[in-house]
Design goal:
Structural class: alpha+beta
Number of helices: 14
Distance between the termini: 43 Å
Radius of gyration: 27 Å
Shape: globular
Strand order of the largest sheet: 6-5-4-10-9-8-7
């Protein structure tokens, strides 16, 4: 692959559409005001002219960028040259490349093409290289060429180490693969529907609608629209209850649809030392996660799935980009908890979920701390609203027993377990989250004590693992002081040993 190559010409159209949408989105408010709200026809005319010139300039620039963009592999590097006015060269060592991911948008699928994203260790703002559209055969050849050469370089480095006088570092060396492991997991239609109907995306839908409403309210005269519904000011409480129910129902239906599109055709398979995840109906994504990049396993149980024994299993992986969506690391979108260990052991080798009965729980005297932390804000808000707006203000006290119930659940379920090199930390907000971390993957361990915690002989513990350019954290609050110290001794032993 030493000869420079260009991406498929359809990438010009795809990039133009993407850039045009982004540009219009960034200037949507002023253009909306100038074109649709403003009544002056001359201003509207010039606004259209400016918009047309900008789109024409973007089209010309896109063609020139396509002509100047080339890629190739040469001298154990992946080389990209681009730039219209200023020529840019980017050389990436093959040893730094972590993953080569592919996705298929609508236009790529029409022409039988794929988008290829190359990521390196330490990437932050996005993939190091993105090839908008190349053929599937070229993408597969590129992927094989990169990883075959990368494997050869690693073998050459290991051979050099064997013949050198440098002591062998048993902590960083990786064991050779004794056998090729091939296992797979595929989400069926019943599981997809259940995952969609029990997803927690309704909160995202509602918050998004509120954000849109606040923006529209700033640029559009909403007074006339509000007047059309002025009759609701005299409506009964039953009418308001029905409207709220309908709004929540519509938000839930939208959430179900988005989740179904997101996880349609979901499949995960392990091939050797890589986990390959594919998903998506309209736009298909494929992501490769090397086992060496896995920093922790996260198990999430929301309030809809937890009573039925279902959970979501996610992989916290290092490398990649800060812009990656969390769904990219989902290993099992919906799985029965009793089946997690069987599949998890096949996909990851080292990780194992301890049963809840094996957890070292928080002490009984921590119950009041959980109840206070969960119930203080609802109690304060309820009292203030009840005093200011009786009798309807009394309804603000309804969330208080719900908050106390979740506080009690957090007290009952929070805890930790240690087995050999693994630590498992379980805590909850509204939903329950369990983190399983290898000791050598822990970036640090912290034990904190407030004044009141110190008097009660309890402490909070947290550990952090690397996730893209950020740190993901797991912790337990109000743990027995001796247990927190025990975890510190377990962790610091590894630190002393490695030093």
């Amino acid at each position: 692959m030493s000869e420079p190559k260009r991406v498929h010409p359809i990438s010009m159209f795809i990039d133009f559409i993407s850039d045009a949408v982004s540009m219009i989105k960034n200037f949507i408010i002023p253009f909306f005001v100038l074109i649709f709200v403003n009544s002056n026809s001359s201003i509207r005319f010039y606004a259209f002219i400016i918009l047309g010139v900008l789109l024409l300039w973007k089209a010309v620039l896109t063609v020139l960028e396509w002509r100047r963009f080339t890629y190739r592999m040469e001298d154990d590097e992946f080389r990209v040259e681009s730039g219209v006015i200023t020529k840019k060269k980017k050389y990436i060592s093959l040893e730094r490349i972590q993953t080569v991911n592919t996705s298929e948008g609508i236009f790529q699928r029409i022409f039988g093409l794929v988008r290829v994203q190359i990521e390196t260790a330490g990437g932050t703002d996005g993939p190091e290289v993105s090839l908008t559209a190349i053929t599937k055969a070229e993408a597969e050849q590129l992927k094989q060429s990169i990883f075959n050469r990368k494997k050869s370089l690693q073998q050459e480095g290991e051979a050099a180490d064997e013949h050198s006088d440098v002591p062998h570092d048993h902590l960083t060396a990786q064991k050779p693969v004794e056998e090729e492991v091939n296992v797979s997991y595929r989400m069926g239609v019943p599981e997809l529907l259940l995952a969609a109907t029990t997803s927690s995306g309704i909160g995202v839908i509602i918050s998004g609608c509120l954000a849109i409403y606040t923006q529209i309210d700033e640029i559009l005269p909403m007074d006339g629209f509000v007047k059309q519904f002025s009759f609701l000011s005299h409506a009964s409480i039953e009418i308001y209850a029905i409207l709220i129910f309908l709004a929540v129902l519509i938000a839930w239906i939208l959430s179900v649809g988005l989740t179904a599109l997101q996880y349609a055709n979901f499949a995960a398979k392990r091939k050797g030392n890589d986990i390959i995840i594919t998903r998506g109906l309209i736009e298909r994504h494929q992501m490769t996660i090397p086992l060496a990049r896995i920093q922790a396993v996260k198990i999430k149980e929301n309030i809809l799935r937890e009573p039925f024994g279902f959970a979501t299993v996610m992989l916290v992986s290092a490398g990649g980009s800060i812009t990656e969506k969390e769904t990219s690391s989902v290993l099992f979108p919906l799985i029965r908890k009793k089946n997690i260990n069987e599949l998890l052991s096949q996909f990851t080798d080292q990780y194992h979920l301890e049963p809840e009965t094996e957890l070292k729980k928080v002490p009984k005297r921590s119950l009041k701390r959980y109840l206070i932390s969960y119930g203080f804000v609802p109690l304060l808000a309820g009292v203030i609203l009840s005093v200011r707006f009786p009798p309807w203000g009394y309804l603000a006290l309804i969330p208080l027993p719900i908050a106390l119930f979740f506080g009690y659940l957090a007290y009952k379920q929070s805890g930790y377990a240690i087995r050999d090199q693994l630590i498992q930390l379980t805590a909850r907000g509204i939903g329950k989250t369990t983190g399983i971390v290898l000791r050598k993957r822990m970036q640090n361990y912290t034990m904190t004590q407030s004044y009141f915690q110190k008097k009660g002989r309890v402490a909070s513990i947290h550990t952090f693992v690397k996730s893209s350019a950020l740190l993901d954290s797991f912790g337990v609050h109000h743990l027995e002081e001796e247990d927190a110290a025990h975890v510190f001794d377990w962790y610091s032993y590894e630190t002393d040993k490695s030093s």
